[in-house]
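One thing: could you explain this record?
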Amino acid sequence: MNNIYDVIIIGSGPAGLSAAIYSARARLKTLILERSKVGGQIVITDEVANYPGSIKDATGPSLIGRMEEQVESFGAERKKDNIKQVDFTGKIKKLKGEKEEYYAKSIIIATGANPRKIGCPGENELIGKGVSYCATCDAEFFEDLEVFVVGGGDSAIEEAIYLTKFAKKVTIVHRRDELRAAKSIQEKAFKNPKIEIKWNSVITEIKGDGIVQSAVFKDTKTGELSEYFADEEDGTFGIFVFVGYLPTNQLVKELVDIDEAGYIITNDKMETNIEGVFAAGDIREKPLRQVVTAAADGAIAAVQAEKYIENNFEE
């Protein structure tokens, strides 16, 4: 146990990179553990317009690239490894990866969450090219275009209402004949002249050559198929999917407190129920999952980890 880090960050999305910037800049021995690609969900976003200070034509990859440069400039270490087991019982935390074992005085969990997908052909190929999982991120790209919103819960209906500020028409696609959203939210949607609802329907295929051009719908009661094509003048339309998120909690869900949806519960200092273990970003229970809130979470977690180390470890 010779090589003990002050902070180990699991995950390298905006929350993890932000945490690394703050902890490494504070002269803490910092390690970021990456399972695969760097950047999280934002790297599949072609344009980032709502992150404060974004330069013209900023993209998800370019924003993450600048964050990586900052991380490296402050001296944080980065390793690729898939962590299979963790032990948070001792003062020194232990992580066991496929390649090696790691030890740290504090841990920041920034493993993120992934949106649930429709799971139909064409969806993955057209993400960021008409298929989106974030109205706040992408609504403005569909100004005066038609959009479809898949889902029937609170988030789906709230996002559909938000999209009416930009789209010329919003069609909610729901597999049943009754929405699951709260009645108050439903009432707002029903009163909105831009919103229509396609009941008992699911999307079975999304088509397009580099951009969404059509979608195949199936009636869940009759099995009948129909295909919707983009307006000739528009050339495309949007498909926004809001059927929930899957927090990446498999590594720690038996150790830290999580809510019913599987998100890690923290206080406003990003502290979990285990001393020295923090959580930041989309893995955390929170009302808004955006790059700006992930970065803020990471910064707070790193600062609190520094204070934890100062108070619990003698020089």
Observations:
- The two ends are 17 Å apart (CA to CA).
